[in-house]
Amino acid sequence: DNHFVIEWLPYHYHILPLRRLFVAVDPSSQTSPSRIFDRYRDRHLMNITEWTDGDFFAYDTLSAASKKKYNISHPVSLHKFRQPSFYLKCMQECKRENYAWTAMVDSDEYILPNQNAV
């Protein structure tokens, strides 16, 4: 989904305005989003943290029974197991950094503020 980031990041930077971002880098991705993020980091426009699986997902600590039960060897099952681990780590970091709110959004999802809301 790295090709989405080129449009997604500036949109949310200007519309929200997004200034803090946590990213789980897909281990099966052929490309890295780092160069895109560096455009914002280098200009001190946004604080972006990139995590690999080792930063939030302890695959090695799962029992053999859990790996079999959740069919972790299947890519879709692995994603469904990784995502809640990533969300938990994000929430812990947001709490540690004293953020009052957060949103969990994929790179193919856009937040559209309601201009008519009070």
Within the largest sheet, what's the order of strands?
Answer: 1-2
> What proportion of the residues form beta strands (DSSP E)?
5-15%
The number of helices is 5
Distance between the termini: 34 Å
**What Rg is obtained from the alpha carbons, in whole angstroms?**
16 Å
Largest sheet: 2 strands, parallel
Output the helix-strand order: HEHEHHH
Which stretches are poorly predicted, pLDDT < 50 over at least 5 residues? none
Number of strands: 2
What is the mean predicted local confidence, pLDDT?
88
The structural class is mainly alpha
Per the principal axes of the C-alpha atoms, what is the gross shape? globular
**Helical proportion?**
40-55%
What's this model, at a glance?
By secondary structure, the protein is mainly alpha-helical.
Could you characterize the architecture of this molecule?
- With 118 residues, this protein is mainly α.
- Helices cover 47% and strands 8% of the residues.
- The protein has five helices and two strands.
- The protein has a two-stranded parallel sheet.
- The longest helix is centred in the last third of the chain and has 22 residues, at 75-96.
What is the topology?
Elements: H1 2-15, E1 20-24, H2 34-42, E2 47-51, H3 53-56, H4 64-69, H5 75-96
Parallel strand pairs: 1-2
Brief descriptors of the model:
single chain; mainly alpha; two-stranded parallel ribbon; globular; 118 residues
